[in-house]
Design goal:
alpha+beta, Ig-like_fold, 14 helices, cell membrane, transmembrane, transmembrane helix, MetI-like fold, four-stranded mixed β-sheet, transport, elongated
């Protein structure tokens, strides 16, 4: 029986052979095996550089320091019981909460405030410039900024300048009477005479250990003259350059100590006080007769040397400050790019409706910038979880345990003096687990953005 060709086109339910073959292609029109072939190098690199190290770290974390003895979860138990690692974990929490928040807020403020000014671009360039500096260079810079000596450290130079503006420094820090002299030291740093003051009998008050710069330009000391009805005396630096001279007596060339406060004390009560003149002399009224001479501790207190920025208390906030200095520009640039895409009609409509600038910023600008702010915060959170070099460079050896973070502890445990790569691998796995939630949130956010 012969088949009859009717010439009628296939019905709607019939798929032509050519179209059926084309249907086996992917959405992009590429055969699956061709796509797999092109993706193979990338997948191989991903497996070699990401998947394999993660798997090996998980495996290595289950063994001891030698790598031969299986210890199970003992390394993870040590992670949460070791004081150093717990300090590092606490510091990481501080980093994650403080650094991204402040950097994002500063970036938002800079981006908004510089949007309408002529020099905004120049300002943004200056703020962003630290991003061009490596962490190593930034660490060295801020190690010098935080130097304790105000003559070298910028931070303490400013801090001491502000402090001394509102508080007068001691005239002769570190000065003291001659040993075995008439003045005895008290527990508060003051000095009191053993003998009592008498009218008509000038009192000699020799001091030593005055720093050369404090006595620079001082006049030569002169013996005080007796005055009727008054108590007089002289305070001077009892030291002759090159040696010589008689202790307790004003020799030629010995310098007067001006600006020193002297008090006359009877029965624990101050009855008179005076300040030494340029020639070192002082004069007290008749009420001082029979009182003891007191040199207050304020005359000899050490100069304020500023804050101990790299001490155990302030080392972590100080390093976070250096980090913010570097990354606030990054946040500002991203936020400024997002701000350029905000519809101006919405802002103008809010102003027309009576909203002031703060309300426009809080209720219109910030909500519209929420996706960009999310990108900035998530990026910085991931970055600070891996912070290592800035802490390692800035923190001195004495404060390094107090500034410790997980990435630094991982390095110390894996390659430090007490090498234990099992413990280091456990810390690496912990860091991975801490980063994963942030990465997952970021992936979900990007998928939502694509759907929009």
């Amino acid at each position: 029986m012969s088949s009859v060709t009717t010439g009628v086109p296939p019905g709607p339910g019939t798929v032509p052979p050519a179209r059926e073959r084309r249907g086996r292609r992917t959405v992009l029109g590429t055969r699956p095996w061709v796509a797999a072939l092109f993706l193979l190098p990338a997948l191989a690199l991903l497996g070699a550089l990401v998947v394999y190290p993660i798997g090996w770290s998980v495996h290595r974390s289950l063994f001891d320091a030698s790598g031969d003895g299986f210890v199970g979860l003992d390394n993870y138990h040590e992670v949460f019981s070791d004081d150093r690692i717990r300090t590092a974990l606490k510091n990481n929490v501080i980093w994650v909460v403080v650094a991204p928040s402040i950097a994002t807020v500063l970036g938002l403020i800079f981006a908004v405030l510089t949007e309408r000014v002529r020099w905004g671009t120049a300002f943004k360039m200056i703020v962003f410039m630290p991003m061009a500096i490596s962490m190593l260079a930034a660490g060295i810079i801020f190690r010098l900024v935080y130097e304790q000596d105000p003559d070298r450290g910028v931070a303490n130079a400013v801090w001491v300048g502000i402090h001394d503006t509102f508080s007068d420094p001691a005239p002769y820090p570190g000065a003291r009477p001659r040993p075995n002299g008439d003045l005895t030291a008290a527990s508060d740093g003051s000095f009191t005479s053993k003998s009592v003051l008498r009218q008509g009998s000038p009192t000699a008050v020799p001091l030593v250990a005055v720093k050369p710069e404090d006595a620079k330009g001082a006049r030569d000391a002169v013996p005080a003259r007796p005055e009727p009805g008054k108590v007089t005396g002289t305070v001077w630096l009892d030291f002759v350059r090159g040696g010589g001279g008689t202790p307790g007596r004003i020799d030629p060339g010995e310098k007067a100590l001006s600006g020193i406060t002297v008090r006359a004390v009877k029965d624990g009560r101050t009855v008179a006080s005076a300040t030494t003149a340029a020639d070192g002399t002082f004069t007290l009224p008749a009420q001082a007769d029979g009182a003891r001479l007191l040199l207050p501790a304020d005359n000899f207190a050490e100069r304020y040397r500023g804050a101990e920025w790299l001490g155990p208390t302030l080392v972590t906030p100080s390093i976070i400050g250096a980090y913010i200095w570097m990354w606030a520009g990054f946040a500002m640039v991203l936020i400024a790019a997002g701000l350029a895409g905000v519809p101006r009609e919405l802002l103008e409509a809010a102003r027309v409706d009576g909203a002031n600038e703060w309300q426009v910023f809080r209720r219109v600008t910030v909500p519209l910038l929420a996706p960009v702010l999310g990108v900035v915060v998530i990026t910085l959170v991931i970055n600070v979880l891996k912070i290592f070099d800035l802490v390692y460079i800035i923190a001195p050896g004495s404060s390094l345990p107090d500034a410790n973070v997980l990435a630094l502890q991982l390095y110390q445990s894996s390659f430090g003096t007490a090498v234990n790569q099992g413990l280091g691998s456990a810390i690496a796995v912990l860091l991975l687990l801490l980063v994963l939630p942030v990465v997952i949130v970021n992936i979900r956010r990007m998928r939502k953005e694509r759907r929009r």
